[in-house]
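Hi team,

As requested, here is the filled-out complex form for the manganese (II) ion run. I kept the field names the same as last time so the parser does not choke. Let me know if anything looks off before we queue the next batch.

— J.
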Amino acid sequence: MPEPLILVTNDDGFYAAGIYALQQALADIGETVVVAPEAEKSAVGHAITISNPIRISELERENGFSGYAVAGTPADCVKLGIKVIVDRTPDLVVSGINRGSNVGMSVLYSGTVSAATEAVILGVPAIAISLDAWVRPDYSYAAKVARQFVRRALEKGIARGVALNINVPKTPNGEAAGFRLTRQGTSNYEERFDQRIDPRQNVYYWMDGELVSNESDPSVDDVALREGYVSVTPLHYNLTSEESFAELNSWEDFQDDAP
Ligand code: MN
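And here is what came back:
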């Protein structure tokens, strides 16, 4: 058995602290190949580059962290990583460790999560991992969590079509109360646009916001985080509402309604 091949990516960029902590934590589990955006691409969602060339640079940081910096999005990185850069199909794609949580509606905007779903679309199991901290994030505990889930995923596999979205809480002692299986909630940012004036007197805007949650169900992602648990949500990318499908299907004469 060859050692597992793990493709490591993120949306905070090749030089982020989180991806370094992640690669270092996985280095002895398998062969790691880093393919990450050359600059930060947070909140680009599942965007891909189709109108511009995508350039790749082979780069090295310290302690065996080496790989490819891509002038593109996280989804571009995963596509190029799997189809061009590595010469066998990776056993797993791991995306993160993101600076900031990816729960509720953020999941839709997240480049970190989209990198994982892109892998799943291409048939490779994937995990996204984020740390609920912005200021002086310490990735050491989240890296241990990543390590544990990667081991388990390599051993047991992940259901086809599913990416695991893992969020690690920020707690006073740096450790979580445990793991909790969760559902994607509806928490969202209450956004505001800071209006500013540039040196040439042009008005511009800078978006900022605060995560607001109306949830209290402990099985919802952001509630688990708030209660100090590592939130683990199985995500699928098929957006069909099965519930609504059944309901619409019961409309009388639905099939004959076409004008
Ligand atoms: Mn990010």
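Two things worth flagging: Residues 11-12, 42, 98-99, 112 surround manganese (II) ion (CB under 6 Å). The two ends are 59 Å apart (CA to CA).

Thanks,
J.
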